[in-house]
């Protein structure tokens, strides 16, 4: 989401933690003589036990807080709790045999599971929990059981229980994840607790059987409606449990139902029937393949987002990634499958505004259907940077029609033929159409929601994927990370994102990240969202992965959903790269929000009212806040987070805008965040979590302690760094001020380095150099450096300043992160909902593959010299002194440029600057990776600042290694600038103005300077130099 670039609601602060009560007992009670032992399960079904929010008897809190990592969250200490009324009357105690089940679910790698509770060795109530530990017996599938005989004296007692385990996070870990201990109702024969439920909810493979489960407490009836690709429907009745879960099981049904689509057919409390997707599904049918919407400003002919006032809406038909096809057609048919001809289409749709489309396409081509339709009605699609596109006006008039894509290929005889036409009859059968990778396998019928709704869920087994690289070595210490943020669908997109990128494309670019030197990738949300082109923040929190990122693999199999994501993560891990997921729990939004009014107007997923029959909604500017106070609603988000780590193998989670969760969501939201952090760190102690929190409250990145304090996050998303360094609304950042000729506040920036606001230390900061919000809602660093009017070819100072910003970011404390494309000076805006701004332009990669880029010198002075030489004849050039002085490598570059036309030549020169930017990023990141002095929490000290001269200097130090960074945003080179240097000999090891980076090569040429007093330093304009202490 955006940060301070858009108006935020006034949010309440995090709830004040309750004071801990009671004395924490020790776990030293002997286990001999216990009144309980592990037994076979009782015949009755276990009922869910809820975690108490307060508890009168404290349990041991040595679980998480006693582990090696002090930052790991602890579990809440016992606090006062309203007493539980038992069934027995006061007087003679009644013996109660209780069966307690701990359901670890997918976390089956636990051992030494033990039961503890508020009773003594004779089974009498004791708030000292002094009966010791009772070993629990494994029931398989992650379930553990023990029975205990308790003495019910009929008095109101706070009977509680919990479990300790040996697991990934250590031995004897407290395995209850809520704020308190588990409550025990002695009027019932059993109780159970499951930290996660994603192994129970939704569709689940049970050997040869299949089960379904949905929480819809207010629904009158629910059925599972299963549909195959031929449209055959099967309905499976579901039964309702006391807690509002609807469940069904089909014996021997897995083989029959696997791969089919399904929805829940819900009759709500008002008697209305609707189809709802499964919030726990791992794969969705997705938006109909090849259809989405394009919104255009009718006056300017420019693409805008869907909420732009008065936008003209077009349906965009697209065949992705078919640059080698000989041609492509869109065919529209009536409801019976009969192809419509040109006259029928014109009568139904109207011709549309060709002039508007001409503006949208910048006059380069026009893919409005009416401009390309043949007499028989086939619409010739335009090749748009490897994708084939057609735009159709009046989307509402397409409803009820059917569509088909036809891709043409050479027949080897000089003609063309239909690809995937297996019987060679010149037409697609239904089976051939469904089997082609470019047509939708589920439906060709256009509806009002086509291209927006992700439709139903798909029956899949999330446990079937075979991981190869889960244990592959990768950097586990976040203080050594350099993070690269990217959006899967646009990372390699072309043609205004007409040709999107997929997980397969991203996998093929893993070598790019390795060459660059980053070790961690942070993906924008990959959960299923509305539309096939979306940042990902308007999802419905489905556990499914975005279907539009799917691809056809080398075997011809279409890979989508969680399998596509898992393949990418597995390959990234194999290359030594961490992968971070971006999760959105602060709101749910969308026209196809399957959770809204699920079961009726009581709207349980969003009803904050605690009074029966009443409804209270809480909102953010982007959608409604889920009702975290409801345990089943909270569980959905907890499950999603744990599934990201345990099932998808992400290495960490970035939480989108946590302020509404703990502000609008109050105490319930705060406790949900704490519970999630407990869970994910319990599952994998190396999990790293970061909160986008703009009040910069250090409490959020402190351990989740037993007294209710601390959010349990490892770090904060520290946009303050970017605001001070580059761009800010309230007060110009350094780059912003310097580009406008204003005084730069070097003092404020260096003060931030030495005393960061809202942090307990820099290891808790993901230091933002750039991110999707700053790029999409403000502008690229390169464009900020250019000032108010960015150009297509940034000037020398602007390119230098962009390197300055990145280099200072890599040299500063914190964990640095930057957004896709910055490593080569991308200038695209990446506006939300405006896909025409998403292309970063990777043409620079193919330039000069046989050139020695370490010897290429190209800057504005060289460019001006080249442009003069271009005007000379070849003979005159040979005699020109400037040409004669060129090195052999630079002559090769010049001759290549001279052979190109005007626009191509300009683009090639711009690509040279992009190559140089990439080389700088590689070297600056390599320097950071080379020394512990640049780690996130290594020492940082102020050396010098001068606001008017726009100069700053600071040191980084760890052990015996120390570096001095001297930078300037002055518009002039500072020759022999007199400034104090720390004692010692300082050797220049990096100069951002080096010729190889596109600079003017002004610096100290690797000299060693003597510190301990005022020393003359050469500081390049809009550049920085790094010295290492000898």
TrEMBL record:
It catalyses: Transfers a segment of a (1->4)-alpha-D-glucan chain to a primary hydroxy group in a similar glucan chain. The keyword Nucleotide-binding does not apply. GO terms for molecular function: 1,4-alpha-glucan branching enzyme activity; cation binding; hydrolase activity, hydrolyzing O-glycosyl compounds. Residues 9-61 have a biased composition (Low complexity). SUPFAM superfamilies: (Trans)glycosidases, E set domains, Glycosyl hydrolase domain. Residues 1-73 are annotated as: Disordered. GO terms for biological process: carbohydrate metabolic process. Residues 485-868 form the Glycosyl hydrolase family 13 catalytic domain. Keywords: Carbohydrate metabolism, Transferase. Its EC number is 2.4.1.18. PANTHER family: 1,4-ALPHA-GLUCAN-BRANCHING ENZYME, MALTO-OLIGOSYLTREHALOSE TREHALOHYDROLASE. Belongs to the glycosyl hydrolase 13 family. GlgB subfamily. Catalyzes the formation of the alpha-1,6-glucosidic linkages in glycogen by scission of a 1,4-alpha-linked oligosaccharide from growing alpha-1,4-glucan chains and the subsequent attachment of the oligosaccharide to the alpha-1,6 position. This is 1,4-alpha-glucan branching enzyme. The lineage of its organism: Bacteria, Pseudomonadati, Myxococcota, Myxococcia, Myxococcales.
